[in-house]
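task queued by scheduler; priority normal; single chain, no ligands, no partner chains; default sampling; output format set to structure tokens
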Amino acid sequence: MALLDVSHLSIQFGGVKAVQDVSFSIDAGIVYAVIGPNGAGKTTLFNLITGIYTPTQGEIRLNGEPIHGLAPDTLARRGMARTFQNLQICMNMLAIENVMVGAHLQLDRNLFKAAVRWPALARRDHQLREQAAEWMRFVGLDAYLDARADSMPYGALKRLEIARALAMQPKLIFLDEPAAGLNPKETQEVDALVRKVADAGVTVVLVEHDMKMVMNLSDRILVLDYGKKLAEGDRDAIRRNPEVIAAYLGAHA
């Protein structure tokens, strides 16, 4: 059974059909890329699966259980995490505190215990800080354990966002353009990190415009064009597909 099943998924905004009758499945433990020209519906598809949008029609199943229409926090508890195109970092906090935010579902939120400074809560906070530090080391941010987020370079902030998502201990992580705005060295670092995440047993779903990264990392690739599924397959099949070439370069080219 696939980890994620998407069946006949569609959403319409007024007269705009942003995603139209898209179906695919993702097996556990792979890197699955979603590509397509600008405006193809890639981020909208992510927003549908991760609970930000409710589909007009279609079905989404995680481990065989229907999840379409569930709120993002409910999906997080079921093992789904994501990052965004634009950084969603709390710049007035320490980097490690940003990562700790990702582990908030593991905290005891009992108001009485917090009010009386229950010793177990203090111990758990200390444990979470240690775990957050481990995730920062995992993504290569050892040098920023004591840094404020607003003092970090853009490439490091991209990896910090991935560390925060991993702190949720997800089974499935959605990365929306993790290499956007990065220089070649930073892109190589994110490339290696995505493979490291997958090798650690987390299924990765990737939207990315850097085709070198996509072809290097992906086990399966879904191609969207004007909200429709254009093609799906392994990297070699996608690389040779004439419809994919036409969508990216134009039919004349």
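post-processing summary
- The radius of gyration is 19 Å.
- The longest strand covers residues 16-26.
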